[in-house]
Amino acid sequence: MGLESSDMSCFISDFVQKYGGYAVVDGGFATELERHGANLNDPLWSAKCLISSPHLVRRVHLDYLDAGANIILTASYQATIQGFEAKGLATEEAESLLRRSVEIACEAREIYYDNCTKGSWDLVENGNTTRRPVLVAASIGSYGAYLADGSEYSGDYGDAVTLQKLKDFHRRRLQILAEAGADLIAFETIPNKLEAKAYAELLEEEAINIPAWFSFNSKDGINVVSGDSILECASIADSCRQVAAVGINCTPPRFIHGLILSIRKVTSKPIVIYPNSGETYDAQLKEWVKSSGVSDEDFVSYIGKWHEAGASLFGGCCRTTPNTIRAISGVLSNKSSSPFKS
Ligand code: MET
Ligand SMILES: [Zn+2]
């Protein structure tokens, strides 16, 4: 079941408005899978668990729901038909794993709803206690994420990668995920303008009938990682009628405030923010360098400022955990009853 186009662009702003002026996104998915013992040193990264340990994927969704997330992202970030085929899977098997990523998130949501006791419901509406509903966002990582060579943090695909090539790469996965029962598509860690353009054109050409968000990453707080202007990137998202929110993920917390102000200059769509812990990723060593990370307390101390600057959806990306999300959720629910102040 799809939405009319006017409903699509307002889908997230309506949701946020209805449920207290904010929404809580989940945290680092791969990080939490690893904490449960998964070995993700693989070109498929977190998507490897869709093959080897779907129960763990469900567990991680539940961990984030229990922590207060009300938008959960599927394990499909690095799940691509091309990547699964490289592992020897047939095309049909690859496609069914993509669908499975959405089904598992929906199953976790059902389990969570079933387990909810009245006492844990946290929103009062018309005098009745209701719970904040959960949305399932089907994650789509960049072409660079599929390459697994660090180019999702450089945004440099070389001249051979054209708009057409990116569209062809993403087309089938987008079609499948859009029809698998998710509430929205989360295009994450978009490293350059070309890929944003490819997504916008695909949403239009394929007449995708669920809304999407575009989330970029930055390593200087001024531009997206490729050096392309955040203003131009966010403008592409703003012009696309199916895009219901624009934002930043997998970027150090210290860069976020300025990026929100820039995005606000070119769009009035809701802004989604889910930074990483501030640690940096060493693509050669394939590990995170701890030095510059922030504690959960420090991370959460930014939330008020980000909200004031115009963001309304908050979560975490790599190296954040259910504890980070629990802290974010706590701070937001305390503040939602009074005018929001930092
Ligand atoms: C490299 S960014 C990864 C985003 C994805 N949603 C995850 O948390 O695993
Ligand atoms: Zn990340």
From TrEMBL:
One of the record's GO molecular function terms: S-adenosylmethionine-homocysteine S-methyltransferase activity
Annotated Zn(2+) binding sites: 250, 317-318
Keyword Zinc attributed: yes
Alphabetized Pfam families for the sequence: S-methyl_trans (PF02574)
UniProt KW keywords: Metal-binding, Methyltransferase, Transferase, Zinc
GO terms classed as biological process: methionine biosynthetic process; methylation; S-methylmethionine cycle
Cofactor list: Zn(2+)
Domain Hcy-binding residue range list: 11-332
NCBIfam families: PRK09485.1
The organism's place on the tree of life at top rank: Eukaryota
SUPFAM superfamilies attached to this UniProt entry: Homocysteine S-methyltransferase
Organism per entry: Manihot esculenta
Keyword Ion transport attributed: no
Lineage, top ranks: Eukaryota, Viridiplantae, Streptophyta, Embryophyta, Tracheophyta
Protein name as catalogued: Hcy-binding domain-containing protein
